[in-house]
Specification:
Length: about 425
Amino acid sequence: MTAPVGKNAATAGKVALDAPIFDPRAFRLSAEQADIVSRARELGQTVFAGRAAAYDREAKFPTENYRDLHRAGLLGISIPKRHGGLGADYQTYSLAAAEIGRYCGATALTWNMHVCSTLWSGPLADDLDMEAPVRAEHERRRVIHYKRIVENGAIYSQPFSEGGAAAAGGAAFGTEAKPVRGGWLVTGKKIFASLSGHADYYGVLCTEIAEGEKASRRNTLYLALPAKADGVSVVGDWDPLGMRGTVSRTLLFKDVFVEEDAALMPRGVYFQAAQRWPHMFLTLSPTYMGLAQAAYDFTVRYLRGEMPGTPPVKRRMYPTKQIALAQMQIKLEQIKTIWFQAITEARANPSKEQVLRAYAAQYSVMEGANEIATLAIRTCGGQAMLKSLPLERIYRDSRCGALMLPWTAELCLDRIGREALYEQGETDD
Ligand SMILES: Cc1cc2nc3c(=O)[nH]c(=O)nc-3n(C[C@H](O)[C@H](O)[C@H](O)COP(=O)(O)OP(=O)(O)OC[C@H]3O[C@@H](n4cnc5c(N)ncnc54)[C@H](O)[C@@H]3O)c2cc1C
């Protein structure tokens, strides 16, 4: 347990709670939003923070945290209320996920994969075009998935990455779904598949290819494969620099039969979403927003001599420390501002300015979290980076953000530069 940070720190029972990253009044959140976000923050601070070191050390999936997320109703955070969820919209989910990331990066990142199965099939799909019978069929199917989550605590993951251009949006997925009577046979390989061996369903992005057809991105399917289905295997090890509790091993699929109700989106809708709802790819950033806040919180506590488990030595009187903290605070506020704007304006058919801002927000958070963590280590000094304290884990976890496809830091720079200089379809010929 850590000492509370921030002048708005409140008390829940006997535990002094940290102030929220985004103060509900300052950021004009509704009472319902504030309630959902504080539910995540309390669970993060009072339970997940204490478990994070062991998951990281052992590269172990946070199974216990998932049981708690289920109990708190947070596995169904973005499931509509009429289906037993909390009905959180994109912005509310993002704010809650940042609070979880503040206390356990691996839990927040994997929870993101799970929640996106419901966010994308739910509020996001509701914004997209579908013929009435297709929408009715989609409604019937998604209820099957939502029921499993709400009633049984089922966990969904999102394996996209294959090691080629597909996860960056540049080519059709190499994992193939062959249409057969009543469903599909899925064959392929996914790398960096977080929750491997721990999710109940793998939300696989694959390409539907009938006999004699060529692969096309338009025919992308988003299918929930039961983890226990014949032909599914988890291979390889997982011993990375950071985000160790995500257990992102390799998944293999060999002629895995799935029925039609496994579709998390109807045919063609994922392709439409990727074109028309680009903020769907910003959902990896909340975790790292939380990590940025965590590095800052740590530094304040440490310099004030209030870090539990360390001697009460104050270091705040040195002007160099004060300047470093000021730099961290400025960076943090910059990140918070652009990110809050981006998550607030996420919607179908955003303007070009909004899309460029979303890339800039992703870049700022992913690179900024690690910059703040780096500065925190330099400022706090040698004793602060011992493994008995969370800062070195925050530093390692934060390094992973810029690598996450499809909006890696490099790809964000690439897209901003190109899309700011060229209108759609424009060339120099
Ligand atoms: C902790 C963690 C958890 C993850 N969990 C998941 C998960 O659950 N599901 C999932 O699908 N993936 C997940 N990923 C995978 C992640 O999105 C990447 O696919 C993975 O890091 C492997 O990519 P790579 O860097 O080897 O990619 P490469 O394809 O080798 O690319 C290397 C770099 O080149 C750049 N690049 C790639 N393509 C282009 C292009 N067309 N134009 C310009 N530059 C380009 C990018 O910046 C990229 O970072 C996770 C990654 C991490 C680190």
